Amino acid sequence: MNYFLKIYIFGLLLIGSSLLNVVKAAQSDQATEVSVAVAANFAAPAQKIAAAFEQDTGYKALLAVGSTGKFYTQIKNGAPFQILLSADQETPQRLEQEGLIVAGTRFTYSIGKLVLWSKQIELVDERGEILKKGNFEHIAIADPKLAPYGLAAMQTISKLGLDKQILSKAVWGENISQTFLYVDSEAASLGFVALSQVFKDGHITQGSAWIVPTSMYANIKQDAVLLKTGKNVPAAELFMKYLKSKKALEIIKSYGYSF
């Protein structure tokens, strides 16, 4: 065989081998990673759980944080998430009815709590009387059409009979993270946010707050589901199990959630 032809063939073999190695490496990375869509209110505990998950198992959880409503639309349109940690029960139920999750994987991983919070130390009293007094300029509320915590806020306001007074001062957040930022930046004096955003290890971390009695709004049960895209993916299946582990439950509880 011609010497240069041998060199050419050898070069092709090397290129083919390199491409195969790249494909194998990519497949290996995919096998050890799981893509998780996380409701905005659960961002902080999810990050802690993901870190513990990687340390304990060697698998990596890649988190995307946003509104449950938007995640639903993205999943319907083929977004490559493998797990959804929803802010409600309704969205996972709809995905289940539409055949987009692995049957039998849906479960409630936490029950969220609503809090009226201000960065100012003495602005919000422990009974939420400031809502009746109305001595504030703006109040931040998450969009109730997209965010379960926004819906809970609206239910609370209606129960108090303060719809007209409060809504005239409302600043709307696309999700609970944006709503929190409005209050944290003091663009709004106060706002309804998730307790997990301002609570750690048994106490409010800063500012002043009224933890809204759960009798004032419907339970914010948050469900997790393994999506069809995560079926037979070891990292995805293991992460779902890890969410029920003692370590994960302790982390969830430390942010004020119940079960």
Can you summarize this structure?
Helix content is 42%, strand content 22%. It is built from 10 helices and 12 strands.
Written description of the protein model:
The chain is an alpha/beta fold. The protein has two domains: 32-111 and 220-254, D-Maltodextrin-Binding Protein, domain 2, CATH 3.40.190; 114-211, Periplasmic binding protein-like II (D-Maltodextrin-Binding Protein, domain 2, 3-Layer(aba) Sandwich), CATH 3.40.190.10. It has ten helices and twelve strands. It has helices spanning 3-31, 43-57, 68-76, 90-97, 130-133, 148-160, 163-167, 176-184, 234-242, 246-254; strands spanning 33-39, 60-66, 83-85, 107-112, 114-118, 139-142, 170-173, 190-194, 199-200, 203-204, 208-211, 220-226. A five-stranded mixed β-sheet has the order 2-1-3-12-4. Strands 7-6-8-5-11 form a five-stranded mixed β-sheet. A two-stranded antiparallel ribbon has the order 9-10. Helix 2 (43-57) packs antiparallel against helix 10 (246-254). The longest helix has 29 residues, at 3-31. It is globular. Mean pLDDT is 90; it is low at 3-28.
